[in-house]
Amino acid sequence: ALAVVAPQDLAGLRVAISAGGTREPIDPVRFLGNRSSGRQGAALAAEAAARGAEVVLVAAHVEHAVRAAALHPSIRVQDVGTAAELSAAMKDAAATADVLIMAAAVADYRPAEAADHKLTKDEGVLTRIDLVENEDVVAALAAARAEGRAPSGQTIVAFAAETLHDAEQRRERARRKRERKGVDLLAVNLADAEHGFERAENAVEVIGADGTVVATSSGTKRQVASAIWDAVLSAR
Ligand code: CTP
Ligand code: CA
């Protein structure tokens, strides 16, 4: 038999990856959510572990079949539910992490208050839900690093799902988003019918610190994960 061994080029690195989609409670049975499956985050975790890294996978509602892809002795999975829980888990991991990747779809807003009982139609309150903005987790992680509250040389990667079809407009939005968040790399994935959310395949462009496209990859989420780790190593 032929043993295929991945290069151990991430050996010695501690990495934290968020995956999946947060759910913001409306009441005990209802929530605001999104379509993120966690597949790209799980693939990033599996690829990192195969290449020698120690991984914390912060998983927001990642179903069993997906997390099975990230079963590895070097991957610790920490389950979270809301954006606030995801934020706390990532900040915890960030204190000792060399690389942070925010692949999770974090809710931009949450209901201003979650009811403590199941809301009923006759209460008449479900026709309108007041929302408040959630913290931008990845921007907070980048700010903590800028203030020296992170291991030196920490690399931070954000994701962005964009549905703009014009490639140049998409890149321009991505450049501004990378700068606004203060991250090193921004992986832009094209969220359309064939790619992105709930799909096995993905297509990404990675924008680097100078605003140029430093990597392009399409294929399985594992192939895309491999290209993203290559880009992380080049950026360090
Ligand atoms: N993100 C985050 N905290 C939030 C929202 C997003 O950390 N409250 C992270 C995501 O995990 C992702 C990156 O920010 O890595 C980009 O998310 P995206 O939704 O594309 O950016 P937003 O700043 O929310 O902008 P918009 O949704 O308006 O495009
Ligand atoms: Ca958003």
UniProtKB/TrEMBL annotation:
- Which residues participate in CTP binding? D108, K118, F159, K177, K181
| Record keyword GTP-binding present | no
**Highest taxon of the source?**
Bacteria
One MF term in GO for this entry? phosphopantothenate--cysteine ligase activity
Tell me the keywords, alphabetical order.
Coiled coil, Decarboxylase, Flavoprotein, FMN, Ligase, Lyase, Magnesium, Metal-binding, Multifunctional enzyme
Cofactor dependency: Mg(2+); FMN
Q: Which residues form a coiled coil?
A: 157-184
Task: Quote the pathway field.
Answer: Cofactor biosynthesis; coenzyme A biosynthesis; CoA from (R)-pantothenate: step 2/5; Cofactor biosynthesis; coenzyme A biosynthesis; CoA from (R)-pantothenate: step 3/5
Cofactor mode of binding and number, as noted: Binds 1 FMN per subunit.
Give the residue ranges for region: Phosphopantothenate--cysteine ligase.
Answer: 15-236
Domain DNA/pantothenate metabolism flavoprotein C-terminal, first and last residues per copy: 10-233
Q: Which reaction does it catalyse?
A: N-[(R)-4-phosphopantothenoyl]-L-cysteine + H(+) = (R)-4'-phosphopantetheine + CO2; (R)-4'-phosphopantothenate + L-cysteine + CTP = N-[(R)-4-phosphopantothenoyl]-L-cysteine + CMP + diphosphate + H(+)
Q: What is its EC number?
A: 4.1.1.36, 6.3.2.5
Keyword tRNA processing annotated: no
Tell me which family the UniProt entry assigns to this protein: In the C-terminal section; belongs to the PPC synthetase family. In the N-terminal section; belongs to the HFCD (homo-oligomeric flavin containing Cys decarboxylase) superfamily.
Q: What does this protein do?
A: Catalyzes two sequential steps in the biosynthesis of coenzyme A. In the first step cysteine is conjugated to 4'-phosphopantothenate to form 4-phosphopantothenoylcysteine. In the second step the latter compound is decarboxylated to form 4'-phosphopantotheine.
- Output this protein's name: Coenzyme A biosynthesis bifunctional protein CoaBC
Shown part of the complete sequence: 169 to 404 of 404
